[in-house]
Amino acid sequence: MRAILFDWDGTLVDSLGAFQHANAAVMAAFGLPWDEAIYRRHYVPDWRQMYQNLGVPPDRLDEANQLWHTTFAGAEDVIAFEGVAGALARLDSVGCGLGIVTAGDRLIVEPQLARTGLGMLLPIRVFGDDLPVHKPDPAPLRRALELLGLADAADEVAYVGDAPTDMRMARAVGVRAVGLASVAGDPDALPEAGADDVAPPVEG
Predict the structure, then answer these.
(1) Which of 126, 144, 149, 202 lies deepest, with the highest CB count within 10 Å?
(2) φ, ψ for residue 9 (rounded to 5)?
(3) Domains plus CATH for the chain?
(4) Which of 7, 9, 14, 166 is catalytic?
(5) Type and span of the H or E element at 160
(6) Pairing relation of β-strands 3-6 and 13-14?
(7) How far is CA 48 from CA 19, 56, 58, in A?
(8) Residue pLDDT, tens place only, 52-81
(9) 7 is catalytic
(10) pTM higher than 0.70 for the full model?
């Protein structure tokens, strides 16, 4: 593989606690139920669609988003999974192109890249607010391939993610789809979404 691109949350960093806390705060504010099973059932990278699916009124989505950002911004428990920095450094040392394609907004993820020390190892970055479409639309991943200079060499690139939408995006672009089992990625759902390989959950 000439390059490997990654999802961010749940793949390279353990942000589940911060996400769950922020989402729970939003759901509580709107009097809606919330737990891990509900999250897995309704998760999509487009937060507007997810919140509507969860019952947030369409005319109050911006209010919900502001509350989520306020709660999540104060979280200090987003940390790199053990071994990630070393693995990325080894890949970088052999000339493998590296980067992220994430649904997370630039203002949220950029500080996490710096705080975890992974930023220097992930020069290619496509954020959720860079384009008007989200996973599983292939556009974000195609943008990353363009930045790598590999737009015509998708079969020499892998994408690693923990959600079915990651796998569907990878398959649509033609890169190798590698799934990680997680809260967002049921091990059975990942192959159904097109994963070429499925790895066990990363332990924090």
Answers:
(1) 144
(2) -65, 125
(3) 3-14+78-199 (3.40.50.1000), 16-73 (1.10.150)
(4) 7
(5) strand 157-161
(6) unpaired
(7) 15, 9, 8
(8) 999 999 999 999 999 988 888 766 678 899
(9) yes
(10) yes
